[in-house]
Amino acid sequence: DEMYFGGVNGFIHFYPDSIHQDSTNKTVFLTKLKILNKVVNPGDTINGRVILNKRIQYADTLILNRKDYYFSLDFTCYDFYSGRSLKYRYKLTGFDKEWIETDSKNRTALYRNMPPGKYHFQVQVLNKSGIWSPNTAELTIIVQPPFWETTVFYVTITALLILIPLPIIRFREKKLQKEKIKLEKIITERTLQLINSNNKLE
Description:
The strands form four sheets. The chain has a five-stranded mixed beta sheet with strand order 7-13-12-9-10, with no helix packed on it. Strands 4-3-8-11 form a four-stranded antiparallel beta sheet, with no helix packed on it. The model has no long low-confidence stretch (mean pLDDT 80). It has helices spanning 151-163, 165-201, and strands spanning 3-7, 10-14, 28-35, 38-39, 45-46, 49-50, 61-64, 70-77, 87-93, 100-103, 108-112, 117-126, 137-143. The chain has 202 residues and is α+β, with helices and mostly antiparallel strands. A hairpin with a 2-residue loop joins strand 3 (28-35) and strand 4 (38-39).
């Protein structure tokens, strides 16, 4: 049956059976990476190294270090009909405990002072029917530890602590051995002198 509703500009009529849920699986994309508030483009050198070899939209992995202590990721969904009313949510697995929801006015995820580790960033968009699209934008983020916190550094220091004393110990052992031989020689000489003296007295 057709339904009518009165409005300021007249009547609105429609058929309830013609209303369908929006089941469109919209796609969200990463659009921009900033490090220390500076936009990073493919090939840019940041803190002495190239961060991106291709656009962030197509990147699979992002490798950062302690100098990149503040960064952000922008994202969007190219929907020209309902772009302004779209809702988003993002999460950095390994850092964020819950999904963080936002809207089209704030499509930026900000992170700072992250501890070293491997993280997984995901962002989704909500369609008109209130369903989160399975077409998720994803990015693996690796924050490298400073050299003095790496396994290589710990192994090196441990090895040095073990190896450095060895020459000192060996030197002391040789010195003691020489002193022992010298002492034994002196004792032998003294003993011989005493024997000779006793023989003369007899």
